[in-house]
């Protein structure tokens, strides 16, 4: 019965480690590039809005 408990504990630990690795990999491959793209878009949008306000601002 002792070997069964050790095996069960090892299996549970391995499953948790695999799930954590899968979650980390998913975040690196799918989520992070989207966040970087959104940040770049926001930065470009901010610069564009500043230029538009400056060039089309009040003439007086």
TrEMBL record:
InterPro entries recorded: DUF3042
Spans annotated as Disordered: 40-60
Xref: Pfam families: DUF3042 (PF11240)
Bias type Basic residues, positions: 49-60
Name of the protein in question: DUF3042 domain-containing protein
UniProt source species: Weissella minor
């Amino acid at each position: 019965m002792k070997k069964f408990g050790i095996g069960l504990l090892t299996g549970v630990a391995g499953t948790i480690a695999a799930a954590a690795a899968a979650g980390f990999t998913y975040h690196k491959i799918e989520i992070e590039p989207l966040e970087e793209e959104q940040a770049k878009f926001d930065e470009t949008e901010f610069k564009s809005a500043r230029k538009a306000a400056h060039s089309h601002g009040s003439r007086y």
